[in-house]
Specification:
By secondary structure, this protein is of the alpha/beta class. It is built from seven helices and eight strands.
Amino acid sequence: MNQKIILFTIILIVLGLGISEVTAITDAETQANDILNKNNTDSKVLVVYFSRTGENYNVGNVEVGNTAMVASYIKEYLKADSFEIVPVDKYPEKYDECTDIAQKEKNDNARPKIQDKINNFDSYDTVFIGYPIWWGDLPMIMYTFMEEYDFNGKNVIPFNTHEGSGDAGTYPSIQTKLPNAKVNTKGLALDGKTARSDDGKQQTIDWLKGLGY
């Protein structure tokens, strides 16, 4: 009987620790979601981002992706609008399965479809573009996005998350892809853990200040 009580107590302790950990993560991500889900219709700045939830390298399972966290810092600081790039065909939650699909898309030069449209894209003067680095490149869905809209004359500022590859040369790639836009290649590249931290938020704000905001 005593053994059963001890075992039951251990289970409760383990579950309690798990619940507190999940709650802490949820609180941090909820704030980001609250920021990203509210738009200021008068803003001339748009933060567009693609970010994957689920199992992520080096940070575990997340409800708000690494790039989305950075997007929330930019949006909050600039009081900008935001648009999340959501694929029609959702990527797998498992990290390895997702990387396999991402590699195939890159090899095929695929253009994954995006769920929604930005109806008032012409009203924005500046577009921040955020993404993770997949196989040393932008995710192919980012090329879909850049090909669907007219960036003529717009200020384009990239930012990205990574796990050791920095920006992987993607800022000049965006400049080449959008020749009629004014692409600022002094982007921001944060690794996943930093992107999810107070330090990452401060680095983002310092970067924005350095850009003149």
